[in-house]
Amino acid sequence: MWVRVFLSLTYLLSVNNSMTDILKTALGTSYCMFYHPAITIDQLTPVQTFDGVCQVVNRQLSQHNWNLTTWPGYLQDEITRLLWVNLFYQNLDREPIQKPVLCHQHHGQLVVDCGDTRLMTLALKSSTVTVSAVVTCLTSSADQYSAWTPVTQDADLIAAGGFDPVHTKILITPTATGSDHAMSWMEISSSSTAHHMHSVDQRLAMMQKYLRTQSRDFEFDADWARNPINWLEFA
Q1: In this predicted model, which residue has the larger pLDDT, 11 or 87?
Q2: Per residue in 100-127, is it b (16+ CB within 10 Å) or e — as a string?
Q3: pTM, full prediction
Q4: Three-state SS for 110?
Q5: 150 pLDDT tier (thresholds 50, 70, 90)
Q6: Beta-strand relationship, 101-106 and 130-138
Q7: What is the pLDDT of residue 195?
Q8: Residue 110: phi, psi to the nearest 5?
Q9: What are phi and psi of 105, to 5 degrees?
């Protein structure tokens, strides 16, 4: 639950400062941001994987009750993430993932800060699928991204990603002072993804209705994620 409250506060702070250029303010003189249009997903190191989420959720289902409203907030977030993966996978052909993954360099790896769910969805297709990515780093480390496109302000990223410049907002959570990267979370709020069921509570209620149609030995896995489900039936 605290995750939802935290992100809501981030959203409100960004909206209330809508006249401020979010990225320019976050980067300042200490950090740089770069954009790449097509990184293969096996070049990125996610914090969470689809198999890992399935294991956690399946364990909860087997050991505890199926009343999702009693689950801890972080587990509610995980089971509703699975709904997203199934939905996004179904729509990949007609709605390719447009939002870039946010990452930073750590021990030679591009570690994902925001975008794990998108990677889970794409990985169900192939490990060689590409996704756009943005990386933030200290200004002193900028030279290693000479092949990437520099991003200095909101308009740069909106244009690079092909988003509507009028109806798109960028929301971020900055890192603590002294960090080697500028932000730990970024959302590009666009009209093109307004129908993606952003409410965790909505997805939780839908998942609860879906589980009522399943036997008690039901488990989430890759085959389940690839199987089309009409989620509107559970709305």
Answers
A1: 87
A2: bbbbbbeeeebebbbbbbbbbbbbbeee
A3: 0.86
A4: strand
A5: very high
A6: parallel
A7: 47
A8: -90, 100
A9: -80, 130
pLDDT confidence tier of residue 197, bands split at 50, 70 and 90: low
How many CA atoms lie within 13 Å of 193's alpha carbon, on the beta-carbon side?
18
Tokens in use for 173? 């959570």
Name the residue with tokens 């052909």. 93
Tell me if residue 22 falls in helix, strand or coil: helix
Q: What contacts 33, CB < 8 A, 6 or more positions away?
A: 23, 27, 134, 135, 136, 150, 151, 152, 157, 182
Rg from Cα positions in the chain:
18
State the amino acid at position 102 in one-letter form.
Answer: L
Spell out a b/e string for 66-97, using b for 16 or more CB atoms within 10 Å of the CB, else e.
Answer: eebeebeeebbbbbbbbbbbbbbbbeeeeeeb
Per-residue pLDDT at 205 exceeds 80: yes
Report residue 144 as tokens. 């290693």
Half-sphere exposure in the Cβ direction for 60 (13 Å, CA) = 21
Q: Give yes or no for residue 185 having a pLDDT over 70.
A: yes
Neighbouring residues of 85: CB distance < 8 A, sequence distance ≥ 6: 50, 117, 120, 121, 124, 225
pLDDT of residue 218: 97
Q: Are 40 and 130 in contact (CB under 8 A)?
A: yes
Amino acid present at 111 = V
Q: CB under 8 Å to 183, separation ≥6 — which residues?
A: 26, 102, 113, 136, 172, 173, 174, 175
